[in-house]
Amino acid sequence: MSNLILFLKENKGLTCFIFLACTFLLCLSLCLYLLLYNGHKLYLSTNYITIDVIWQDNLTPAKVKEHTQQLIKKYHLIFLKNIRPQTLKKDLLSGITDPALFSSLSIPYVTVFKYKYIPQKTDVSNLLNKLKSFPQIKNIVYSQTKASLLHSWMRIEKGVLYPLILGIIGMIGLLIFLALRLLLLAKTKEIEIFYLVGASDFYVFKPIFCFALFILLASGVVAYGINLILSNYFKQIFHWFGLKFFVLPYTYVLFFFLGLSSLALVVALTSFWSLRNAS
Amino acid sequence: MVIVKHLSFAFGRNWALQNINLHIKKGEFVFITGPSGAGKTTLLKLLHADLTPKIGTIKICGYDLQTLPKYKHYLLKRKVSIVLQDFKILPKQSVFANVALPLWIKGMRKDQIQKRVRAVLRGLDLVHKLNTLCEELSGGEQQRVAIARAMVVNPEVLLADEPTGNLDKGLSLRLLSILNHFNLHGTTIILATHNEELLTRQDKAKIIYLEKGQIRK
Asked: Which of A93, A168, A260, B123 is the most buried (most CB within 10 A)?
């Protein structure tokens, strides 16, 4: 402990700079992760597409029932409801003063299905094409925007947010690695003397690891605190859009700090071994 | 205690030591002498595992340096102390901090460290400079700090490279008597020196004369 305090005291300027830089970067990565987490939650809650199947005009209710069962079995669709032509006609005619307008119009049966959208496993457009080619189906109606939004979210999540967070963590690691290298280079003579009088590798490594761990955990705690404050503002913004906001669960926070400790170990080991091999 | 067989070492293409064979028993006092560039410092650094031999074997304090992995060198260095020509002390630290360093590394208790450091510094006439920064000391005093640091751990083998190089005659003789005292308590002393007076004052010492990297007599 006294070694660490001495180490921090001797390098006040660099310690402050690294601490502030790590706090900023960790705060940024936590905010991004919070966005990712909420986006994923939203994605999970809305990853169903509603498909309205419009049957051919001549189909009887019994036939509709039979084909519905067939579709459920074949394409793993979830049945929601059937809309009878009379109901549909009633809805269409509501507010229309001249009922003669629709008197000659034949309105078919409509069945509403729910379909679970799993981007890696299912191809929505393929399914929709198959449904369209089904002879008893006249047409299908589905939300194209929703399907493309869900698909885009997965692309943003995998292609942008995850690499960005990993990149920031990599930057933090690199920053601490370079700071440690700088400190170790400044202390080469001292370390040489330590080895000369019988210091083990662990004795030299200990303050390096403690420094990295202290910086990362301290900046992690501050970043998490800032993130909690910012969460309140995020909550309001989400509410404006009518969305529910989720804060990061404690298991994630624990994982975050464990990750930081592991990063400290990896960075300290890397900088220590690069020094050891150079000497 | 120290067995060296067919030891050769080169810096690049220049052979600093060639076919050195040594057998030093426990408690012996050995002088390594010879002209500048004869390989005295290189031999001491090889014995302290600061350099790796190209050819030959070194066995010291029960450790075979050929098979001892680098991460275990500290075990050897806790038994074999070295005093180098350039002292290798921490200039920004006090005399006490420098001398106590190997004991701190060993994890000794604070009161024991105080006691030992004071005893060694008293013997080297440095106790009044206990809290002085090393950069404020003269060359001779700095050398004595390096000697005190090497002696404070009661090493099995003490390697000293020109320990009297910066000392006046009186202090040199005093240092020799201190080394003798340690030698009488079982510490093997291997001392590289130019100082011919020291050689004559130590009757029972073994003298190894190095010239152009080879033992002449």
From this structure: A260
Nearest CA to A142 out of B59, B15, A150 is that of: A150
Comparing CA positions, the residue from A33, A74, A44 lying closest to residue A167 is A33
Report the 10 Å Cβ neighbour count for A70. Answer: 12
Per-residue pLDDT tens digits for B133-142: 999 988 888 8
Q: Which residue out of A3, A195, A197 would a mutagenesis test of the B interface target, given it has the greatest number of B Cβ atoms within 10 Å?
A: A197
- Tokens representing B51 are 């350099």
CB B46 within 8 A of CB B6: no
ipTM above 0.90, yes or no: no
Which residues of chain B neighbour A9 with C-beta distances below 8 Å? none
Beta carbon pairs, A and B, within 8 Å: 39
DSSP one-letter code for B94:
B
Partner residue opposite A198 with nearest CB, options B50, B78, B84: B78
Q: How far is A3 from chain B (nearest CA, A)?
A: 11
Task: Give CA separation, A243 vs A21, A41, A145, A272, B89, in Å.
Answer: 32, 11, 18, 48, 66
Per-residue confidence band for A59, with pLDDT thresholds at 50, 70 and 90: confident
Identify the three-state secondary structure at position B199: helix
Single out the residue of A108, A113, A116, A112 nearest to residue A92, CA to CA: A108
pTM of the model: 0.73
Tens of pLDDT, residue by residue over B17-55, are 888 888 988 889 999 988 888 888 899 999 998 888 888
Residue A269 and residue B6: Cα distance in Å, rounded? Answer: 37
Gap between the Cα atoms of A50 and A27, Å rounded: 38
Residue B104: partners with Cβ closer than 8 Å, 6 or more residues away: B113
What does the H/E/C string look like for A11-44?
CHHHHHHHHHHHHHHHHHHHHHHHHHHHHHHHHH
Report the amino acid identity of residue A232: N
- What lies within 8 Å, CB to CB, of A207 at 6+ separation is A3, A4, A7
Q: How far apart are CA A115 and CA A153, in angstroms?
A: 18
**What would the pLDDT profile of A123-181 be if each residue is shown by its tens digit?**
677 788 888 888 888 888 876 666 667 667 778 888 888 999 999 999 999 999 999 88
Rounded Cα distance between A174 and A188, Å, is 20
